[in-house]
Amino acid sequence: MPWSACFMAERTRGGSGRIGGGRGQERPGAATAAADRSAWDMAPGLDVGSGTRDGGLLNSYEAEPDRVAVIGSGNWGSVAARLAATNARRLPYFQDEVRVWVYEEKLSNGELLSDVINKTQENVKYLPNVKLGPNVVADPNLETAVKNATMLVFVMPHQFIEGICQKLKGKIRPDAKAISLIKGMEMGDDGPRLISREISEQLGIDCSVLMGANIANEIAVEQFSEATVGYRDDKETADKWVQVFGTPYFQVTHVQDVEGVELCGTLKNIVAIAAGLVDGLGMGNNTKAAIMRIGLKEMILFSKLLFPSVQDATFFESCGIADLITTCLGGRNRKVADAFSKHGGKRSFDELEVELLNGQKLQGVLTAKEVFGLLKAKDWEESFPLFSTVHAIATRHLPPSAIVEYSERAPRKIVLV
Ligand SMILES: NC(=O)c1ccc[n+]([C@@H]2O[C@H](COP(=O)([O-])OP(=O)(O)OC[C@H]3O[C@@H](n4cnc5c(N)ncnc54)[C@H](O)[C@@H]3O)[C@@H](O)[C@H]2O)c1
Fold first, then answer.
1. Which domain holds residue 139?
2. Binding site: which residues?
3. Is the N or the C terminus of the chain less surrounded, counting Cβ atoms within 10 Å?
4. Which intervals of the chain form a coiled coil (predicted)?
5. How far is the CA of 183 from the centre of ligand 1 (A)?
């Protein structure tokens, strides 16, 4: 049986059997809007499983089609815009145009990035050689980019989110819904703040999250992968987000565990730094698997200590174990940590980020710093030897080899000087 048929069979067993962009379906704690490619291509918008159009979603959209805006246009932002634009073209309950806010940059040939995207349909800097779609409009003006949008997709390095939210205050529709694709967290005076919470509180709107094993360049060329939407209590909106992003090659499920999903996406970047360090030391797969296992345990413990509502099952969705694996095998955090380790920790992460990532931003080092701040404040370092050690290595208080020099059974307290 081809894989697409397997997915169809699984979906049919599990519930409505809808495919082709139908409403997401629940498996224990999850829903999926996956599709068989041929059915999806030949019958856009059709609910193939039941023979009805999109499980009734269409009716609820008849009054006013949703308008999607994407805030951010880096590597993942461009792919997110491409996915949303594909669905906006084929589904009647979305307006065709998907506007993307571009942090304006002058390219080496003197042209502006937004002009080039509009001229070529390509983000030549962050996602070269991939067409975003004829209905994508790049807009360097934040206010016009989000005008009249009912669905706001936030996707940028997390260090910029606070400033962007400040600028968006009073500029968005009060009934807009948001989703964050951002991996990272901020430390406020009152403790850690998840990005979805920051967006919700600053703008007064609902904010879900989408995380998963999603290396952007692979999804850009339509290689099969999965993602998880985490929502708080608005399942109807979670269904809509599944519609915005789901395609036959990008299978999106939803779970009611916004914090669990977001923490998975955020914390795995610290583990990816550890995996890269191990690669740079020339160690093999056993070592990397051990690092991933220890890292996953720390991810689960940290998430549950902060948010007791976080569910174990979330770690087995795409946002959990699958994202951890892909990030530790590929991805920018692993890559830069590998180089850091190969240079014996003599060149800084900042320097290597500039040299190796062409304007893309590292997340793991910053997240490790933010997490370590909390571990220290709570006196939890001994329970998180891997997270603590990654931070100590990244700040050059320990050599890269320290990543394999602790025992989980007898963790030592790391004292930073
Ligand atoms: N790239 C991936 O494969 C991937 C996959 C999943 C999730 N993510 C997450 O998505 C988020 C966005 O990553 P990305 O890959 O789209 O971006 P990126 O790292 O490729 O690019 C950096 C972006 O930041 C913008 N920028 C630079 N300075 C800025 C400023 N002062 N204010 C606002 N924006 C500024 C740049 O224009 C560019 O769009 C991150 O949280 C990342 O962890 C990335």
1. 3-256
2. 72-77, 160, 183, 216, 332-333, 361, 363
3. C
4. none
5. 10
Which residue reads 């042209």 in tokens? Answer: 111
Residue 350 exposed, middle or buried by CB count within 10 Å (0-12, 13-18, 19+):
exposed
Q: Given this model, what pLDDT does residue 413 score?
A: 52
Q: Say which CATH number the domain at 209 has.
A: 3.40.50.720
Name the domain boundary from 226, 256, 286.
256
Residues 249 and 280 in one domain: no
159 CA distance to ligand 1 middle (Å)? 10
Can you give the pTM of this predicted structure? Answer: 0.86
Which among 240, 268, 335, 342 is annotated as catalytic?
268
Structure tokens at 111: 């042209």
Is 369 known to be catalytic?
A: no
Assess if residue 416 is contained within a domain: no
Task: Please write the tens of the pLDDT for every residue from 324-378.
Answer: 999 999 989 999 999 999 999 999 999 999 999 988 889 999 999 999 999 998 8
Residue 193 confidence (pLDDT) above 90: no
Residue 192 pLDDT level (bands cut at 50, 70, 90) = confident
Q: Same structural domain for residues 210 and 281?
A: no
Q: Which is nearest to 127 in space by CA: 208, 217, 205?
A: 217
Which residues, judged by CB distance below 6 Å to any ligand atom, belong to the binding site of ligand 1?
Answer: 72-77, 103, 105, 126, 155-158, 160, 181-184, 214-216, 359-361, 363
Query: Among residues 266, 256, 252, which one has the least CA distance to residue 364?
Result: 266
Any domain includes 410: no
CA–CA separation, 116 and 205 (whole Å): 33
C-alpha 20 – ligand 1 centre gap (Å) = 30
The model's pLDDT over 301-327, given as tens digits with 9 standing for 90+, comes to: 999 999 999 999 999 999 999 999 999
Q: Stretch 127-150: mean pLDDT, rounded? A: 98
Same domain, residue pair 200 and 300: no
Ligand 1 atom having least distance to the Cα of 72: 39
| For range 57-84, the mean pLDDT | 86
